Amino acid sequence: MSLSYEGTIPSRPRYGQLTPRPGSGHLFVADGEGADAILALFAGPGAKGMLATTQIVYMPGPTGTDKSAELEKLGADIFFRAPDYSTAQPRLKRLFGSAHMGLQLYLTGTEGLIGQAQRDAIEAGLPHTAMQTEHRGSTVRRVQCVHCKGITENVRTDPFVCSHCGLNLFVRDHYSRRLAAFQGVNIDAEDPGQVPPQVERFA
Amino acid sequence: MSAGAQRLDVTVAEVVDVNPLIKRFRFVRTGGGALPTFSGGSHIVVDMDDAGTRRLNPYSLMSDPGQTDSYMISVRRDDNGRGGSLYMHRSVRPGMQMQIGWPVNLFPSDLRAKKHLMIAGGIGITPFLAQMAQLDRIGGRFELHYAARNRTLGAYMDELQTRYGARVQTYLDEEGQAMDLKGLLTSQPFGTHLYVCGPKPMIGWVLDTARTLGWPEGALHSEEFLAPPVGQPFEVELARSGKTIRVGAAQSLLEALEAAGVDAPYLCRGGACGQCETDVCEADGTFEHNDHWLSDAEKASGRKIMPCVSRFRGARLVIDR
């Protein structure tokens, strides 16, 4: 899947392409197809020497893609596989708490993964522009219901039903870095029951 | 008129010789009352009437941001400068009435940082004095590395070490004490922001070293006020006002605009803030871009000029003022 930035708002997150940068260490956080971005970086120029100071934290993607075996073979100093982000999070927080400036952050995979790792790095004091990001794989979204504040992961359709309060939510491109989530707004607040048909916008 | 260009009437309350090169000035509000609140890293533009020549120089506020009964600045005498610092040293006395601009902060502490690493060279210490007072009050974690030629010129070294203890490290060039910059920059906890203020070569050295060691751009902060450099006189056509003015050798384009009665925007007057950015309508010649504001691409385009510090050499220049 690739993201389209057409017709969106300026604040919508945009992603780049991972490239090797000088640093005292290299931390990759990835899910699903993000593995391909890491493999591509190490297949390119200027990255071979980084392996001895590279740590990879990887988890399968929301559509089940799991490239752990290929990544593990890469030969990074540390490879750690987690079942999902909430399991990887304590490890990342501990890493941020003991790391020094100079550590390079590379985040790749789905927007939900990139956003949550970015949020935790920002909470550790890093500027939001400090980490490199590359979107790969699924375009499903992590969405906050602006009414009940509950977060629904892996949203595929627009509108969708909030998994917490049951409201019909329209998925906006309006994004919160603090919450690492897009915003979902009740679509039938004024005409209850007048809900447009769900469209599969994210896959 | 931009915010920082609004004037405050002040009276000089105190002038202190800090060392052979530096004087400290304390201003109170004329007629009494509190001065505007400011944040650590702010500067003011001091308005000087130097025997008929108007001088407007930016100086960092060094006093505690928690105190608004007075403002303090330190001025280093520059015998080869255009005259602002010499005027402050020779002519400003306690009891004098002056005008200053409102405080403007182009060098704030990023309070999202987990730690603030400050590196000062010489008179570049002044914004950090205010930043440290502010951070100390709110429990912010900071560390100052302060270099000067010798102990006499390290104006506030003793005072700072007494107040902040091991959080202040000093380096005296004449005693061969060099900063282990690489060691310093590789041992900072994740989430540290770096601040540097001092002479141009020092700022370059610190920032380049940090970038090489993988510090992200967003965690790097620096401030350097430039004095408008002296150059060849040149003529400028002002498209909007329909005037043609001449910029003298020791005058900046901004000063020439003001002398011609054109209300041009400004804040820092030192090439740092971007407020005076001006569109170029036509140019046949070479720009002398001296600012820290425009990108290299903008400088090369010949479509923009910062009148506070930049000049022009050539046949014709028309700007949108």
Describe the 3D structure.
Chain A has 203 residues and is α/β, with parallel strands linked by helices. Chain A folds into 2 domains: 25-135, Rossmann fold (3-Layer(aba) Sandwich); 141-200, no CATH class. Chain A has 4 helices and 12 strands. Chain A has helices at 34-43, 68-73, 85-98, 111-123; strands at residues 25-31, 54-59, 78-81, 103-109, 132-135, 141-145, 151-155, 157-158, 160-161, 168-176, 181-186, 199-200. Chain A has a 5-stranded parallel beta sheet, sandwiched between helices. The model of chain A has no long low-confidence stretch (mean pLDDT 96). Chain B is of the alpha/beta class and 321 residues long. Chain B folds into 3 domains: 3-105, Elongation Factor Tu (Ef-tu), domain 3, CATH 2.40.30.10; 115-223, Nucleotide-binding domain of ferredoxin-NADP reductase (FNR) module (Rossmann fold); 234-319, Beta-grasp domain (Ubiquitin-like (UB roll), Roll), CATH 3.10.20. Chain B is built from 7 helices and 17 strands. In chain B, strands 1, 2, 3, 4, 5, 6 and 7 form a 7-stranded antiparallel beta sheet that branches. Chain B has a 5-stranded parallel beta sheet with strand order 10-9-8-11-12, with helices on both faces. In chain B, strands 14-13-17-15-16 form a 5-stranded mixed beta sheet. In chain B, strand 8, helix 2 (126-138) and strand 9 (142-148) form a beta-alpha-beta unit. The two termini of chain B are 14 Å apart. At the A-B interface, helix 3 of A face strand 11 of B.
Summarize the structure.
Chain A is α/β, with parallel strands linked by helices and 203 residues long. Helices cover 21% and strands 29% of the residues of chain A.
